[in-house]
Amino acid sequence: MGDYLKYLPLTDELYDFARRHRSDADDALLAELREETSALGDDARMQISEEQGSFMGILAGLVGAKDALEVGTFTGYSALCVARALPEDGRLLCLDLDEEWTAAARRYWERAGVAGRIELRIGPAVESLDALEPERSFDFVFIDAAKDEYDAYYERILPRVRPNGVILFDNMFWGGRALPGASDHANARSIRALNAKLASDPRIECVFLPIADGLQLCRKR
Fold first, then answer.
1. Which of 188, 181, 177, 218 is nearest to 201 (CA)?
2. What's the sign of the alpha-carbon dihedral 51, 53, 56, 57?
3. What's the pLDDT score for residue 147?
4. Consecutive 10-residue averages of pLDDT for the chain (221 residues)
5. How far is 161 from 99, CA to CA, in rounded Å?
6. I need a surface site. Which of 122, 139, 169, 200 has the fewest CB within 10 A?
7. Does the model's pTM come out above 0.85?
8. Per-residue b/e over 77-100, b at no fewer than 16 CB within 10 Å?
9. CA 177: distance to chain centroid?
């Protein structure tokens, strides 16, 4: 039998079916945060999908994450999902540039009762990573910020990830423009190069998950 592509084309009806069959599908606070973020117009596209948030929370719990890092926080949806999965003494460090968007995040973290687990640092991500305490390490990392800096984040973060810790990269399809020849945009080139690098990097093993705009899930060896 020859090779064949084993996937199901995703229709709006199938996607709605999937998104409704999640443990947190009826979470009123998450729904309110999504609704408030949607009022930002085009900027709302930066928010992760509902199933991504559910997946990240489950994954953080599965690896027993206690120390987590997020690069790119926006209005705080992904951070809220991850922080909820951490133990009471767990810590999530969030790096972002924008005071206004993250002000909304802080409000929802407070309402969810997880603000005490989250530290937010405002400033350019590369500078914030370079300034991290020497002893700081992480079990779980989510990267969703400047696409042309993804590799710079990766090289700074990977040495701080414990063995069997995970790194998640968002937007690795980059709207389909990461395909060879699809776009010569700097972001497309960066994402394309990083996808290739991760697939051959002996320090990790990775799998590309076609969730939302594409997730690369990496486990540190």
1. 218
2. negative
3. 97
4. 79 95 96 97 95 98 98 98 98 97 98 98 98 98 98 98 98 97 97 98 98 97 98
5. 27
6. 200
7. yes
8. bbbbbbbbbbeeebbbbbbbeeee
9. 19
Query: How far apart are alpha carbons 53 and 61 in whole angstroms?
Result: 12
Q: Which of helix, strand or coil describes residue 167? A: strand
| CA distances (Å), origin 35, targets 44, 116, 193, 214 | 10, 24, 35, 23
Please give the Cα distance from 85 to 32 (Å, whole number). 19
Supply the pLDDT for residue 2: 61
**Distance of alpha carbon 19 from alpha carbon 15, whole angstroms:** 6
**Whether the Cβ atoms of residue 164 and residue 118 lie closer than 8 Å to each other:** no
